[in-house]
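Run log, item B.
One chain of 222 residues. Sequence copied directly from the ordering sheet:
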Amino acid sequence: MATSTSSDAPDLPAGDLTTWLRALPAAIAGQLDAEVPCGTCTGCCTSSQFVAIDADEVDALAHIPAELRFPAPGGPPGRVLLGYDERGHCPLLVDGACRIYEHRPRTCRTYDCRVFPAAGLDLDEATKAAIAERARRWRFTYDDDPGGGPVRHAAVRAAAAFVRAHLGTWPPGALPSTTTHQAVLATQLHHLFLAVDPATGALALVDPDPEQVRTAIDALRP
């Protein structure tokens, strides 16, 4: 079973939701590359995005000209940013392909626009239109977990709604302000919105204690 579509553009297979959710934490932590079926899409490379590169990314730094890097404000020691040109394109994107693909930064390796449809969030920034269009076309399936997949998907969306509903009620900086970070956080919190029904053994959607969610968010903050 797949989620429904509201776009005239062809659907794109995002993979099985439960399988994707289980693999996502390692990508978020930078331990593994995100296996995104990008095809020829370069939306994330052409959407006015700054790419953070940490000091331990020796290989990536060796392949990025020094004149394209600048210190990341407020970042950890040694972190730099790779900017974009006047078109909003990464300067290392040449003729529609990454010039240093095999040596690309961790940020690029772990970026996964499927977090947006998973969380039910839309990117509404004009500069992110290419990513938003791509994200709207992704369609998850629940084939590997037909009983729990739809419930897990609902839990991710419930977590995203919770985060957005509390943006103005918690201290500044306690919750992420960007749609991207909100979507990622929703995937990290979704398990709190799930429980096993003791009568049936089936996975069910629940409303967690807000303090429990807040504690989990605090634990995830750097």
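Observations after the first pass:
- The chain has eight helices and nine strands.
- The CA atoms of residues 74 and 80 lie 10 Å apart.
Flagged for discussion on Thursday.
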